[in-house]
Amino acid sequence: MQQNNMTTQQPMAPQLTDAQIAAITDAANKGEIEQAKLALRKAKDPQVKAFAQMMIDHHGAQQKKEQQLATTLNLQPETTQTSTELQTNSQNAITSLGAQTGADFDKAYIDLQVKEHKDVLDAIDTKLIPSAKNAQLKQAITDFRPKVQEHLQKAQDLQQKLGTTK
What we know:
Mean pLDDT: 90
CATH class: Mainly Alpha
Oligomer: single chain
CATH architecture: Up-down Bundle
Number of domains: 1
CATH superfamily: Ferritin, core subunit, four-helix bundle
CATH topology: Ferritin
Strand content: under 5%
């Protein structure tokens, strides 16, 4: 009896549509902005506050740029499991961070930023850029990638600084 080769192959990761990518990037930007607004109110360390302001500025500008692009391309963001998880995880993080104060808040916020920016870089490289069909959308994500890398590096630097001050 001959074995069917189809059963031994790994299923391919589902390709995202441009509309789904738009929803994912929007959810990621919104999450960063909301967490950063909380950090501006609660952070004790001036460098953590400066990092939070940078998140608001960079992710806010990117969100506007992507919303304008979606309008230009007549692209309606389409919710996916990933975009819903991003929103839920961000809200859970805000709730958890809300219970923290002082240096504990600073450390928890920066730890979260390191984790999230690693996850976003991975998603950009493995899902978003490879799946994007529209050249302008792909370019917008590609252009923002160095900013995400910069955010990760700054968060890691702050994480080291905060880790040694406790």
